[in-house]
Amino acid sequence: MDAGNGSSDIHGQGATGGLDTFPRYLMHHAKARPQQPAMREKAYGIWQTYSWAQVAENVRAIACGLAQLGFKRGDRLAIVGDNRPRLYWSVAACQCLGGIPVMMYQDAVAQEMVYVLQDAEIKFAIVEDQEQVDKMLEIQPEAPLLEHVIYDDARGMRHYTQTLLMGLDELQEMGRIHDRNQSDFLNGEIDKGAPDDISIMLYTSGTTGKPKGVCQTHGAFIAAARGGMQFDQLTDREDILSYLPMAWVGDHLFSFAQAMVAGFTINCPESGETVMNDLREIGPTYYFAPPRVFENLLTQVMIRMEDASALKRKVFNHFMDVARRCGADILDGKPVSGGDRFQYWLGNLLVYGPLKNVLGMSRIRVAYTAGAAIGPDLFRFYRSIGINLKQLYGQTETCAYVCLQPDGQIKLDSVGKPAPFVEVKLAENGEILVKGPMLLKAYYKRPDATAESINAEGYFMTGDAGFFDEDGHLKIIDRAKDVGKMADGSMFAPNYIENKLKFFQHIKEAVTFGNGKEFVTAFINIDLEAVGNWAEKKGMAYSGYADLAQQSAVYDLIRDGIEKVNADLASDPNMSGSQIKRFLILHKELDADDGELTRTRKVRRNFIAEKYGELIEAMFEGRKSQFIETQVKYEDGRTAKVSADLRIEEVKTFAQQAGKRAA
């Protein structure tokens, strides 16, 4: 079966004629809306605003400065740091010169950066601050091509004397002189640009091997941006908070590509710690976050409600019942009784309105989540209080753009229908295949991998397995390569089961094992904040994560959640054979610094299976406990060993239930 929206006019909207690269869009906005805010940044508690004209002027200065340093068409520019206007300007400046910005994760340790610097043959890097400069200096001997490191924030840099270092202010001043002396230079470079030029290089997360550099063109990201704008009627009046890693494809689509095409405002928070306050101050109209962020927000709300007075709790619970009953229907414009409509109006006055205000979501017209499955209860909660939360599906290789959920057709367990300009079909083994203008141009220096990823008909093979429901909505099951079989031949889809486990607020991470086995086992990471709050309410004493994780009451709490998942799996004839029979709670949190997760928090399944082989063996052999000693790495590079005697416990399983599968 296949589906598609291939008939939509990709170039559409006559107003976009000739606007086929990001630098052309930037210069267009500088002329069409020069005084309208393009970017804001909070610094020292005050919002600084930059108009489109100011952004264009700054981008010119950076581009001409890079040219003065010897940056040429086709060169790669590494960009590392938190979301900052000047780093976004650096992306645009690089593109003006026909260069390729290479985005890197700012929380990666120095050694992780070596691979990208070597693979992308980086000569120039623009980094945020002293922390990133130190990483570059540490790995410079292993990246011999690196000639220039330019830093945005000069704090702490006074005594650095290395010749490859330069402040961004100095580079811009150099660029302004260059621009005055050769005023037609940059316009000439922009004119040379073509939609098929590579506009960005984003590295895959590397769950199974070395990350690959995904080369995307201006045309691909512009097509994805236009499709999303058309789908959700986005205009130049939107406000978005840009706080997710710039190296992540989702941020590049929402915070760069769509802002550049639509001309709306990007808002950069002061720091990672102030995101929630900054969100409330900006009140974005358009918002994107992975499910984990939505889960954390809801967990904080529930923790605060547990501490509220009895009267407040009663009012909250009453109106949340009303919201669950009719809120999503009101949001979708479906018929609702007059009594419920009045109750909901009152609830909006007393509960939903103030709650949305606290969450910084009062003005949101469209909110998206992607990157992992979102729990039905979580999804339902946000939609019930009037937040138009939707799911999307995409990958780095597709500009994060494959499927979107149309307003009024929201399903809790689907990722919607093929987006404008996109065709989606299923291979015989259930693998999702996609075709459209948003596909990657190539993997950098990997013609073999590029050829393997696109089939003879021109479809990109996503590696995900799924199916279409009766309404043409796509449902994702798991990574195709991870879908296995139990010893009895029934399906084992680990990611599908893990996502169901993570829908419980007390479970932060889960990894399941069972391919070729008689039963399924699971590693669990508890959510320290949620379980810690629960433990304090019960008067339980604990000294830290490892101590709390091994307490009997915590095992009972987690077992209860796993049994609910088992009951759900039992109602699905395809999945009833993969119920979890045994589990343990790990003594440490899975961590990207320890190689167990990618920087986008995806589980590195093979690495974990190898590292914790003795624990997996103990669970399948029926042992009641297992001693483990593990090396951990701290943020400052120090290592230490943590050890624990982990308990392994049984979970109740259920006979396959007839009837409809649970939501």
Q: Please tally the β strands and state the result.
A: 30
Order of strands, main sheet, comes to 8-7-6-4-5-9-10-20
CATH class of the largest domain: Alpha Beta
List low-confidence stretches: 6-15, 659-663
Radius of gyration: 26 Å
CATH H-level superfamily title of the largest domain: ANL, N-terminal domain
Q: What would the average pLDDT be, to the nearest integer?
A: 91
Helix-and-strand structural type: alpha/beta
% residues in beta strands: 15-25%
CATH topology heading of the largest domain: Rossmann fold
Give the biggest sheet. 8 strands, mixed
Q: What number of domains?
A: 3
How far apart the termini lie comes to 24 Å
Share of residues in helices: 25-40%
**Apparent shape:** globular
The tally of helices reads: 21
* CATH architecture descriptor of the largest domain: 3-Layer(aba) Sandwich
